[in-house]
């Protein structure tokens, strides 16, 4: 038929323990179902895909506008999403696809060693899913919501919440896939900070090396940790 449609984002992994998988993006889910049912091989199915494309991101590129000059935009009904989190395995699967376990290290004049370390567990979604982010706060019993434009973040930065709630949760309901390495490094950093090893150069070096460490926005990780002059 002359046109190829691709998904640029991989599908989220199935939840461990046989729980329901995390939801597909709403319009992306409609498009995925069309392709799964091979409707994209028909003219009508292809038109539906073009209609979906016209409703998301920046709309249709000029080539598609020329190829499909006559079609009516339809208001695709959004999938109904349960506002309640079904079970903890669902959270593990969702976070395996959408969550971040971050360790940030940056210079700080107020710290004797010259550096500050911050742990952050974060999930980011479109603002239309704010209700889901709010459910994470109540379900996990910690964290907070922040908004920036059309983006909403669920974040946990309090060390004791991370040590007493977040890590025990994911030890019981494990992270799967590529984020497992970051999660393991995150746990090691949390233990080092809990033991106050981050207050020594040797401890900071242990935290600096794992792959989970991220510089603050606009910053860079130090190639090595050096105490302030005279320290």
From TrEMBL:
Which GO-annotated molecular functions does the record name?
endonuclease activity
Which keywords annotate this record? Answer: Mitochondrion
A Pfam family hit: LAGLIDADG_1
- Protein's UniProt keywords contain Cell cycle: no
Pinpoint the Homing endonuclease LAGLIDADG domain residues.
Answer: 91-189
For whether the record's keyword set contains RNA-binding, the answer is no
Q: Which GO terms describe its cellular component?
A: mitochondrion
Give the highest taxon in the source lineage: Eukaryota
- From the Swiss-Prot or TrEMBL record, give the protein name: Homing endonuclease LAGLIDADG domain-containing protein
UniProt source species: Macrophomina phaseolina
């Amino acid at each position: 038929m002359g046109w190829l449609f691709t998904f640029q984002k991989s599908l989220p992994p199935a939840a461990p323990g046989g729980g329901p998988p995390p939801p597909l993006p709403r319009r992306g889910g409609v498009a995925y179902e069309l392709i799964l049912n091979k409707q994209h091989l028909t003219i009508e199915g292809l038109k539906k895909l073009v209609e979906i494309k016209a409703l998301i991101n920046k709309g249709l590129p000029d080539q598609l506008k020329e190829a499909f000059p006559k079609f009516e935009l339809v208001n695709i009904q959004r999938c109904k999403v349960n506002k309640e989190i079904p079970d903890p395995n669902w959270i593990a699967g969702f976070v395996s696809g959408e969550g971040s376990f971050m360790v940030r290290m940056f210079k700080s004049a107020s710290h004797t060693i010259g550096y500050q370390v911050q742990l952050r567990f974060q999930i980011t979604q479109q603002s239309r899913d704010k209700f889901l982010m709010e459910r994470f706060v109540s379900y996990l019993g910690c964290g907070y919501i922040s908004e920036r434009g059309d983006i909403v973040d669920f974040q946990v930065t309090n060390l004791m919440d991370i040590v007493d709630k977040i890590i025990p949760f994911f030890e019981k309901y494990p992270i799967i896939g590529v984020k497992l390495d970051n999660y393991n490094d995150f746990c090691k950093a949390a233990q080092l900070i809990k033991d106050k090893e981050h207050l020594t150069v040797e401890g900071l070096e242990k935290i600096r090396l794992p792959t989970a460490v991220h510089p603050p926005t606009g910053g860079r990780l130090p190639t090595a940790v050096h105490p302030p002059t005279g320290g």
